[in-house]
Amino acid sequence: MAAAPPSYCFVAFPPRAQDGLVVFGKNSARPRDEVQEVVYFSAADHEQESKVEADLSSQRWLHQIPSRVPFFQCEGHSSHEEGKCTYISIDQVPRTHAIMISRPAWLWGAEMGANEHGVCIANEAMSTREPAAETEALLGMDLVRLGLERAETAKEALDVIVSLLEEHGQGGNYYEDADSCHSFQSAYLIVDRDEAWVLETVGKYWAAEKVTEGVRCICNRLSLTSKMDAEHPELRSYAQSQGWWTGEDEFNFSKVFSPAEDHLGCCAGKDSLEKQEESITVQTMMNTLRDKASGVCIDSESFLTTASGVSVLPQNRSSPCIHYFTGTPDPSRSIFKPFIFVDDVKLVPKTQSPCFGDDDPAKKEPRFQEKPDRRHELYKAHEWARAVIESDQEQGRKLRSTMLELEKQGLEAMEEILTSSEPLDPAEVGDLFYDCVDTEIKFFK
Fold it and tell me: Per residue in 208-238, pLDDT tens?
């Protein structure tokens, strides 16, 4: 497999962002044939001393093909295997928050997502001076989901992630690939209504910077320099022990831990957002994620932007946070669909991949001996749209125009919610994401 291209995530704070809004965006650059699903998990209480459960739950629907998979394994009953994250089992906490995540369909964690408290997290795979462990541990994507499930603020999520990193480590294959192990260190952009934290890790060691204004971008290169607001207590002594830092000159995180001559950071994505003369809006962020000329939107022989997400977090707490997910590849040919957390969210099986239970090749060892068809209903419908856009200029232009019009209608409806002086009626938005997905599929048919 070719080397992965940069994958970007962004945050913009007022006054660069519009009207007291924090705007967050992420493109997930992954192997071209990988399916990404969008899944909601409600808040839940857990028994004392229980383990994090694998997703053999009622939120997943049963794939009918191998008939030998027992039905109960996908319907909320425990299976015979111990609950676990993608690769390892860890202790559960007494309560987990409601989350909405976008993730590669074969794993437990998330590329990006949000929780009911207005916390958003995305991660990036990083290459550093220290090779990432191939030993199976927590994936960076597992830590994204765990941070969302366990934290009510961005700073709490940072603390959750570094604590789990210290206890369990990070490692294992990032791709559904039996031929070789692609392991990475991880960076995170963790955002709430008030602040963001950029967290970059090397093994169990880490550094973090707090951001409260302007535009911040992270990608697949270390970006932290000498401005660090929190760090692992042994970070500097570890760097000295490896001979990477003398202890005498200024400690520059990316200079110390980046591969040789690779501490320049990713500027293309940041520039594409910062060059905006007007205030950064949800639409601005979506346009940036669709920008192929800058390299933010990936469409190469081996890799593709397989899913995208944008969140708007009003600093006024009387307004709801709104999260947009594509659930389909290539944001330039996809519709961003809104989601709002309320108590009674309607589940959306059409953006969820089939459940293979314990027969899933990602769960059995040796792993990834087969690649099952993980396409969900929205993905299959969208394949037709992508083919039309690519093959027929006139019909493709009309189709893309109609797709953008559908998206515009959703954005306008959400703008009304944000600017309204009336309190949000949960009954009006519980079906929001479901209805948008349903409309999109009917439109493609």
Answer: 999 999 999 999 999 999 999 999 999 999 9
- As a whole number of Å, the end-to-end CA separation of the chain is 34
| Whole-structure pTM value | 0.94
Q: What is the rounded CA–CA span in Å between residue 288 and residue 89? A: 38
- Distance (Å, rounded) from C-alpha 42 to C-alpha 116? 9
- Whether 9 is a known active-site residue: answer yes
26, 91 in Cβ contact below 8 A? no
Question: Tens of pLDDT along 82-127?
Answer: 468 999 999 999 999 999 999 999 999 999 999 999 999 999 999 8
124 vs 139: CA distance, rounded Å = 11
The catalytically annotated residue of 9, 120, 266, 436 is 9
State how far the Cα of 66 lies from the Cα of 78, in Å rounded to an integer.
19
Instruction: Give the CA radius of gyration of the chain.
Output: 21
Here the tokens at position 201 are 């890790």
The 8 Å CB, 24+ separation contacts for 363-367 are 363/54, 363/81, 366/178, 367/173, 367/178
